[in-house]
Write a structure and sequence with these properties.
Blueprint: H1 6-28, E1 34-39, E2 54-56, E3 70-78, E4 81-93, E5 96-99, H2 109-112, E6 127-130, E7 136-149, E8 152-156, E9 160-165, E10 180-184, E11 190-197, E12 206-211, E13 216-221, E14 237-243, E15 247-253, E16 259-265, E17 267-270, E18 280-284, E19 287-289, E20 303-306, E21 316-318, E22 325-326, E23 364-373, E24 380-385, E25 402-403, E26 413-419, E27 432-439, E28 452-454, E29 458-465, E30 471-477, E31 490-499, E32 511-516, E33 524-530, E34 537-540, E35 546-551, E36 558-567, E37 581-587, E38 610-616, H3 619-625, H4 630-666, H5 678-685, H6 694-721, H7 723-726
Length: 727
């Protein structure tokens, strides 16, 4: 075989080198990079102290799913907004799978935090576990959060990562098989232990070992796991919080299986008004006290702390040092706390404040003394009141925004003022409504909304009292029952309106009274309004059937309006509506509705806000009042109206006469034989009844049918001839 030229050898060597480089890159590059989205998980069960503060990161929909390099996203919605937490897993070594705390009898994390119950009932897939027993696995985790709305992303600052032993640790294996969880960060965070758990009868603790000037934390048990001494034992385990750092290399090793759970501190406060008012929440950054692990001061030193030791105290949240905040404290919730009376949360922005009842007829409403503090200036605070009682906080129901005072200000209260919207409901008898208060961050200035999430702040909901407007309506006239017409058949009606509540009816929401003349209109020739001189208005609709008065009315004061009605000449049909009763009704139409023609009783209105005037005149007086002569009165009014009682009386008397004659004949003092008479026949038939029953039955039936016939005849004639029955 001929030798290859030197140049060819160099080219082959270069090609081989390039191939090796690409091969190495192919081997070392992350494989199976992907993005997976799941719902964010906040625990609903367990004895953990921070269920509303920790968002545990869920890696898969179920356990035993292989975890690969890539971005994993958890998110939840509040109104139209989405809170999204993304954790990127990279540099995975070994085989890692998803894990569900509670899958092994010795697990303790599920006792503190779970959904659905502890043990196998827990549905939170928040753990990462080594797929192969006794193997060591590692990965880098980096997390961040954002608030997404209409495609716009706003960064949510994270305090740090929560790292917990999702299984339980044991040192019953000798090195190198001893179980541990190790976290390495690029910069040293503040390491805190926020919770621990183990069976009450178990004495095994957890050692927290810090090295590399506090950049590396290793958690391991100082003895056998609690389940080794008791079948019902669980733990020990610890939950650590690396404050100030959101990225770390995590390594864990199991004597069998070992698992770690990760979460972020994403404290959320929610409103608690009824669900129709929508979800409103605020993310906030709480302050932590205590639970700090002492870090070594030299690179070659380590510090070891038994977090179950008597001298160590876990970290606690200090809710009084959270800004911006309404009141002085804030509590975290895992989800919206919808409640019928807005009393599911502990609210303190109005502690010691007398909240005035809202007045739907007022022009403005001011709430003074709302407690609010902020770390810096420019944090907005606003409120919403359901003025129209539609179960929603409308944009027009928002107060003017105020600036939340800084924490060092002499006064840490603000006053909120509302312009009462034009559609405020003044007719409802409801004595309460709902109010929402919220404070946001500087980015929310001028844009605070009643629903949705803010990246800082707090939400408080309240059920507040509502003034029920009250108008007293009194109506009278200068005409009395049975009177004759004066001044050309003209009657003056007077309506008095009194404000019975503690606040005024202003120009923007005036008192309104309507006068229904529909039961009077068939008799009316003309109506003349008397123009008010007090600035109020008095109008009549084109049909002439409704008069409307409106005007300002201060508390406890009254106003009066008048109008004159001239009635028609005698050409009024006898069957006209109104039954000769001249009726009209005045009511507070600003507060209630009424159908035309309904009386106060028919409309279900009380005697306070509704009043009617009825001229219950006799028929003769009514006709005389309308100018009719005696022939017309006799023929058209008296005779038709007296025929009915006469006919009834006559028919009853005929039946009574039949009974009287029959009774006299029966006792032997009536008609004598041989003249036939039903009573006499009954008397004679008494002796023969056992053998000849018909001699008594037929006369008795004749008496019964005769009396019944006269009564039915009278009823029929009355129905035909009675004028009232014909209408």
């Amino acid at each position: 075989m001929p030798s290859l030229p030197l140049r060819a050898l160099k080219r082959m060597a270069a090609g081989l080198a390039v191939s090796m480089v690409f091969g190495v890159l192919a081997v070392t590059a992350p494989q199976n990079t992907w993005t997976q989205t799941a719902s964010a998980v906040t625990a609903t069960g367990g004895s953990g102290l921070y269920k509303g503060n920790i968002n545990w990161f869920e890696w898969a929909a179920d356990k035993d799913v292989a975890i690969k390099n890539g971005a994993y996203t958890n998110e939840f919605k509040v109104g139209s907004q989405t809170v999204r937490v993304t954790c990127t897993a990279s540099n995975i070594t070994g085989s890692i799978k998803s894990y569900k705390p509670g899958g092994w009898r010795g697990d303790a994390l599920d006792n503190l935090y779970n959904v659905g119950g502890d043990g196998m009932k827990n549905t939170m897939v928040i753990g990462l576990a080594n797929s192969i027993d006794r193997s060591t696995v590692s990965l880098n985790v980096s997390c961040h959060a954002a608030l997404i709305e209409n495609g716009r992303s706003t960064n949510i600052p994270l305090q740090g990562l929560v790292i917990a032993d999702a299984e339980s640790s044991s040192n019953r294996w000798e090195e190198p098989n001893r179980e541990y969880i190790e976290v390495v960060t690029a910069t040293a965070p503040t390491w805190r232990i926020i919770e621990t758990s183990r069976s009450s009868s178990c004495g095994t603790g957890v050692e927290a070992i810090l090295s590399d000037l506090g950049k590396t934390l290793r958690l391991r048990a100082d003895g056998s796991e609690c389940s080794s001494s008791s079948s019902s034992g669980d733990g020990p385990m610890a939950i650590s919080f690396m404050e100030g750092v959101t990225s770390a290399d995590v390594e864990f090793k199991g004597g069998g299986t070992s698992a770690v759970a990760l979460g972020v501190v994403l404290s959320t406060d929610y409103g608690d008004a009824p669900q129709s008012y929508g979800a409103a929440g605020a993310l906030y950054t709480p302050s932590w006290n205590g639970g700090v692990l002492p870090a070594p001061t030299r690179p070659d030193r380590t510090t070891t702390t038994n977090v179950f030791g008597w001298s160590f105290t876990n970290a606690t949240l200090d809710t009084s040092k959270t800004y911006s905040v309404l009141g002085s404290t804030i509590t975290a919730e895992g989800s919206s706390l919808f409640s019928p009376n807005a009393d599911a949360d502990s609210d303190d922005a109005l502690t010691g404040v007398t909240v005035p009842a809202i007045d739907p007829t007022a022009e403005t409403y001011t709430l003074t003394g709302v407690k609010c503090t902020a770390a810096t200036g420019g944090y907005p605070v606003a409120g919403w009141i359901d003025w129209n009682l539609n179960g929603v906080f409308d944009e027009a129901e928002k107060s003017a925004e105020a600036a939340c005072p800084i924490v060092s200000a002499p006064t840490t209260t603000v006053n909120l003022t509302w312009a009462v919207p034009a559609d405020a409901n003044v007719k409802s008898p409801a004595d309460s409504s709902f109010m929402r208060l919220r404070v946001g961050g500087t980015a929310d200035k001028g844009m605070l909304a009643a629903t949705g999430m803010t990246t800082t702040g707090e939400v408080e909901d309240y059920k507040i009292s509502r003034l029920v407007p009250q108008l007293k309506v009194e109506k009278s006239s200068n005409f009395a029952d049975g009177a004759t017409w004066v001044n050309d058949r003209t009657v003056r009606y007077t309506v008095k309106v009194t404000n019975m509540k503690g606040s005024a009816f202003p120009n923007s929401h005036p008192a309104v009274v309507s006068d229904d003349l529909s039961l009077l209109s068939d008799y009316v020739d003309s109506i003349q309004l008397v123009a008010p001189t007090d600035g109020s208005t008095l109008t009549i609709d084109p049909s002439g059937k409704t008069i409307r008065w409106s005007g300002q009315l201060s508390p406890g004061t009254s106003k009066t309006f008048h109008y004159d009605v001239t009635f028609k000449d005698p050409q009024v049909p006898a069957n006209a509506p109104g039954d000769k009763k001249l009726i009209n009704i005045a009511w507070a139409s600003v507060l209630a509705d009424k159908k035309p023609g309904d009386t106060c009783l028919q409309a279900g209105l009380g005697s306070t806000m509704c009043s009617d005037v009825t001229f219950g005149m006799p028929f003769i007086t009514a006709a005389k009042a309308l100018g009719a002569g005696w022939p017309r009165i006799l023929g058209r009014h008296i005779l038709p109206n007296i025929m009915s009682p006469i006919i009834v009386k006559a028919s009853l008397d005929m039946g009574f006469a039949v009974l009287t004659v029959a009774s006299l004949g029966f006792v032997g003092i009536g008609v004598k034989a041989p003249t036939p008479e039903w009573g006499t026949l009954l008397s004679v038939a008494r002796a023969d009844t056992p053998d000849y029953w018909w001699t008594a039955v037929f006369p008795g039936c004749a008496i019964f049918l005769a009396v019944l016939a006269f009564n039915l005849l009278g009823d029929g004639l009355r129905d035909v001839m009675d004028p009232k029955a014909r209408r």
